[in-house]
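Q: Structure tokens for this one, please.
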Amino acid sequence: METIKGGEFLIKETQSENIFITEDFSEEQQMMRDSIKEFIDKEVWPYKERFEKSDYAFTEEIMVKAGEMGLLGISVPEEYGGMGMGFVSTMLVCDYISGATGSLATAYGAHTGIGTMPIVLYGTEEQKQKYIPKLVSGEWFGSYCLTEPGAGSDANSGKTKATLTEDGKHYLINGQKMWISNAGFCNLMIVFARIENDKNITAFIVEYDADAPNGITMGEEEQKLGIKASSTRQVFYNDTKVPVENMLSERGKGFKIAMNSLNVGRIKLAAACLDACRRFTTASIAYANERHQFKRAIASFGAIQYKLAEMATKTFVTESGSYRAAKDIQNKIDELIASGKPHQEAELKGVEEYAIECAILKVYASETAQFVTDEGIQIFGGMGFSKDTPMESAWRDARIGRIYEGTNEINRLLSVGMLLKKAFKGELDLMTPAMAVANDLMSIPSFEVPENTHVFSQEKEIIGNLKKTFLMIAGKAVENYGMELEEQQQLILSAAEILIEIYMAESTLLKTEKLIQQTSIEACESQIAMTKLNLFHATEKTNNKGKEAIVSFAEGDEQRMLLMGLKRFTKYNNPPNVIALRKQIALKLIDKNAYCF
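A: Here is the predicted structure, written as tokens:
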């Protein structure tokens, strides 16, 4: 199987047989999915009210049960008590354990991701033997202490200090951390602090025992908009003694640890949004079928069908991109291990390779979760605004997704920034295809309408043209601004929107194409409709954001030429009937009375 490099989707065509879709789950993965769904439906969903009443002890209780089921160590190597499974299985578990409530999703993500993985990936053998089995079993819980009052998106600007004691045996940590998930029941903290005047922060493993706090005090539980039963506190350190052997990795490597932890966190966050989208789309469909107005079910109204179709489509798109990237990461990890790299290094480099895709998915998935729950409230009408229905808490829980693991604005800027950095380093050849697009603009366009012999002939051509649009805009922007481009944040945000739409639209088309190969066109009519509907939206957004970008930096003849190119690259020969597509998707959902893809 050929795996393309991170960001290479923009300049290479991917074959559908080379991507992973959820229908490819192994028998073992299907059993795992079903057992997690059963666990959530039995132990969590019926008790949602307890989470909404800030029952932190209940969250901890569920986490202990997850540990007993082995769900806290899916990707942890077996020698440390984990299950040693691949990246796709890790995504699957994160996906299905997170759908019922954001409180559990946050506790699980913080513990298994940023609370445990830094030790797995950067720890010494002694550190791993000492701490990982306890974290995997649920005997201990972890938290990740990075954010400070003055250091949010600028993580490396933290003021927390670590000072070596005179005998050279301990570091004394002094400072303050905020928004620390799991703080109220953690036994271990990954704490980032600066030694002397180092340029970069350093990471430490800090044990915490409430009965012997070692200079650690906790603020009260934060009163939050959502994720009410996710323990979130400020943590204060006053001469907290940490043995020198508890430094994680090397001095000054904390910033790199933080960034790589966030890469993993971003794609896991995408997974954590998925089952929530499925569940709340299903709840909306069921309500629309039950609720009658004007002597008919509201599901029969076109305005409601519009919403259901868009909710399902965005959910399907999110799933397509998330599992595509997860398998690419897993393939890279497997390839590195096969070449002799140790597990730690392979896992780190595998995720780092696809940091662009991780940023894209984090943005798209978190905004989809917000969209789905918001439209869900609208379908429920007045009842949606009531705490008696699940929509109100789901909407509040979804809101944090756009903030943590780096805000969506930071991730948009990062996605384009990392892509251009790869190009400048020579890791991705963007210049050759960008020059080809520039030459293409000077040529006379063909007015022949191609024969659409394949179900997605037109759509594949359009995705190719959207890639040309991005290369055209990015190429000219780099030409105009050079290294100053990073100061043009609004321009980069417009380019990021196009980049995101390209990756997600292509992932969806490839998933549907693979499904057709596995079944038939007839069996995939709704998936085809969702693919076409999503691509129409992607093309419209590309046209809109493309104009915004072009007129911000080009004038005169150059502007006219670029706008003509944009028009050409976002043109449909046969525009889809989006109203008919939505109706087709909605009728399938209404008939099944659930999200059924």
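A few notes: The beta strands are 142-145, 161-164, 170-181, 188-195, 202-207, 216-218, 232-243, 247-248, 292-293, 296-297. The chain has 19 helices and ten strands.
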